[in-house]
Structures are given as structure tokens and as C-alpha cells.
Amino acid sequence: MPFDPSYHADSVRRVKSIARQMSPPAATSFTAELVPQAPEDALFGLARAYRADEDPNKVDLGIGAYRDDSAKPWVLPVVKKADEILRNDPELNHEYAPIAGIASFTSKAAELILGGPDSPAIKEKRVTSMQTISGTGAVHLGALFLAKFFPGTKKVYLSNPTWANHNQIFSNVSLPIAQYPYFSKETKGLDFEGMKAAIHGAPDRSIILLHACAHNPTGVDPTLEQWKEIAAAMRAKDHFPFFDCAYQGFASGDLMKDNAAVRYFVEQGFELVIAQSFAKNFGLYGERAGCFHVVTGPAPDAQATISRIASQLAILQRSEISNPPLYGARIASTVLNDPKLFAEWEENLRTMSGRIISMRTALRSKLEELGTPGSWNHITDQIGMFSFTGLTEAQVMKLREDAHVYMTKNGRISMAGLNTRNVEYFAKAVDKVVREAQGV
Questions:
Q1: Listing from the earlier edge strand, what are the strands of the sheet with 207-211?
Q2: Structural domains in the chain?
Q3: For a FRET experiment, which of 59, 85, 130, 221 has its CA 20 to 30 Å from that of 189?
Q4: Which residues of the chain, if any, have pLDDT below 50?
Q5: Residues labelled catalytic
Q6: Rounded to 5 degrees, what angle do the CA atoms 167, 169, 174 make?
Q7: What local confidence, expressed as pLDDT, does residue 27 receive?
């Protein structure tokens, strides 16, 4: 058919006429009512404010990352050695990891948290492990699995307070959350009776999230005898334990001491899950190496049960990230599988935990020397990266305004941010705001 210019022009006019009659398209489908502006993450907002502060005396006690006595990030010497080994491996490639991760890493990670190859869960082959995007990814994978498959009361009980991200992770997979008492403002220690009462009062077969060691944010841990009572209370109500472990070896410098609660629950035959991070104890913060472990209870069909669980975890992992990242897991695997490097890693852990313990001692001593009102024994009674100082939000903001000290509003400080150069400065700043608040 020959081209007819008049027909073409008429078609164009009709299209333009229809277009004029149509209402203009909406500028966005995502209006402010549907997608409101979210608040900035409090912790990373704090870090941004610290970086923008030009005062030479500023002190960063916010984000929990280890710093040496010069306030510098510390690459563990053993990590440098593992990195050298990897870089000189002629067989090294960058192919996909299996969906479940690097087996040499996940198997040793399981041994680390469960107490070695003689753990009953490992000997009886009733544990499965998935490499994750650090501890956050492990908590998320566990939350996703329980949201889909847990047959009990689908409500997660979190300590009050807890790591702030716990709330968001479980809410994102539509698992309701509740709280159990944990920190006593009066004693600045564990509210043990309140915790036990809440465990007894929770509906049967609830999920109870427990910090394995170095509780974040308080630094307050149950004693082993208290863990035994907690286990008994949970057994009486048939609750399901979800352990989050971000600080094994970093808390006390002793890997076996820091996994004692997990080992006890496994020995008692609990079915449980564990989120495990290697950010703090290897200094691999940005490499995101972690594991999620499921331990099923002892039973004749335990191996079949764990096989089914592993198959479903693989499907969840595949739909989320497909394959976990390699570098951090390779570093950790190299160390965990070499006895000499493992021993050196333990020494590195003692260096980090020892420096933090020394800062706890120094801070308490300075405050007591100054006669700062109140008792400060909780600084040394607490353990791990963080200390719940007991300072109020008003005092925290006053410290930021007057002394350029950056810490979270609830009074939590990262002990790793203190060093021999700033601990006295911080103690004097705390002394000042406490006295002002009390009119002393």
C-alpha cells in the first residue's frame, strides 16, 4: 500500500487529541503518605556527626569496632598471615561458593561455637550450618526460617534492652516481638528474677532470643549457674532458644568460656538455633563472615530431621543471596584449620579483650579517684565491647555538646574507643556532668 501523507497526519492529530484529554501521569507512585521519610539509623548518624566534629579532643564511643591504644583500626596479625597465604595460593579463584558456604569454614565454625568435634550435636550429626552475611545475615536467616516453619508460638522475646537491629529484623519477617526484663537500672546488673518471671509467663513454645556472651548493649551476662536456671525455666515452658553470638573469644579472651551457655543448652538436649558472627573476633567487620547453625534434639531420626532443615535453609538462602561471599570466610577458614594460626588467633583475642579490660579498670579508677557521685563497680563487672554507664540521655547530650564525646543516647559506650590518651579526659567529663545533674 503506498504511503499516504494525509492519512499519517490525521493519525498523528488523533493521538495528540487523545493525549490532551488524558490526565497527566502522576509524578510518583511512592507518595510521602505511602513511603514516609525514614529516620536516619541512630548509630551511623552518630558516626557521621563525630566525623564532622573538628574539635581535636573529640572521643568516639559509639560504633562497636575495636581500636588499638592509638585509636586506630587493628588488622589482626594472624589475619595478615592468612591473607598472605591466600594471595600466594596458585589455585585460588573467584568462582561461586556453594549455597551453604565454604564447608571448611562452616564446619569449623560449628565446632567453635559448640565446643569442638566432641560436642554431642556434632558427634550425633544433628547440626547443620549455613554461611551468612555476618551475624546480621544469620539472625535474618534464622528469623525467616522460624517465621516459615516454627510450629510453636510465633512470637520472639527479646531482652530489654537488646541490639536495636533485632527489632527490625524480626519485624521485617512479620514475627511479633515482645520483651523480657534484663537490665536493672538500680543495680546496673542483671534483673535475673524479672527475666525468669517473664520466661515463665510467656506462652508455651515461645522463641526466646539470648545473647551468648558480652550482651549488647549492656555488657551484663548471667553467670553459668544463672544460665542453668534460665535453661530450666525454658525447659519447663518448652521454649525455643535462639542464641546470638557476636563476641566469642572477644569477650573474655577465652573461646570456651564465652560459649559455655550454648554448650550447656546443647548438652541438655535443647533444639535450638545460633547466629554467629566473625566481625569482632577476627576484626573482619566489612568482610561479613558469619554462620547460622541449627541443632535438632537427640532422637533416632535426628539426622533425617537435620537433612530436611538443611534443604529448606538452602532454598531460603538461594532466594536471598544465592551464594555467600568468599574472602572473609576464606580468612577465617585458613586460621580455624591451622593449629599454629589458631593458637596465634587466640593470642590476638587475648590482646583485644585484655586491652578492653584494662580500659574498664582505668575508667573505674579515674571516676573513683575523682569522687564522682554514685557507684562505678558496674564498669568492671560488665564484660565485652560495651558498657552501660547509667548516664541519662540529658547527660549524654551534655557530654556531646560540652566535651565532644559521642555515645548512644541510652548511655552505652564502646570500651574500645577509650585509650590511655583519652580515658582521663572522658572520666573528667563524666564527673562534670554527673555533678551538674546532682547540683553538687
A1: 127-133, 289-295, 272-277, 240-245, 207-211, 156-160, 177-181
A2: 42-75+354-435 (3.90.1150.10), 96-337 (3.40.640.10)
A3: 59
A4: none
A5: 163, 244, 280
A6: 90
A7: 81
